[in-house]
């Protein structure tokens, strides 16, 4: 595929239009906000190259393992090994649903907005993605993310059953206590 001057100008114009939204910062206690903005801008800028198959997303090894052995028991089966496995998955996945940072958001982020504009500027994008192999790569990445999320939930369920502490078990979830058996009435 040939990158034309019009394509480059379209990408540059989109980044220029999206830059105020990407540069907005909210006061947050963590210093990683600038890194998140940089990653978002990088994701928007590299989107056409991913669509053309020039950049392929690599699947982390922990997600490849999760895809091949989603329901395998950790060995040895201890709270520590469950914690380590969940921690490794947390490093590669978005926050789990029991995390405080997981909230229903409204609207689009600046990154999502920038990608939407870029995607709209690429003619016949779906065909380009299919022919370049980008669609297949994106599907493989999504399948690995899904398997990793399912594995994390499975491990947390094991941790809950073993009475492990979070993050080796779901946050704020407790097993119900067993009801005491009623005494049988005496026969007269």
In short:
Helix content is 56%, strand content 0%.
What features would you describe in this structure?
The longest helix is centred in the last third of the chain and has 28 residues, at 134-161. The protein has 188 residues and is mainly α. It has 7 helices and no strands.
Largest sheet: none
Mean pLDDT value:
77
Give the amount of beta strand, in percent.
under 5%
**CA(first)-CA(last) distance:** 92 Å
**Coarse structural class:** mainly alpha
Tally of strands: 0
Total helical segments: 7
Shape summary = elongated
Low-confidence stretches: 15-29
Question: What labels describe this entry?
Answer:
single chain; 188 residues; mainly alpha; 7 helices
List the helices and strands and how they pair.
Elements: H1 5-23, H2 33-51, H3 61-68, H4 79-90, H5 110-121, H6 125-132, H7 134-161
Helix pairs in contact: 1-2, 1-5, 2-5, 3-7, 4-7
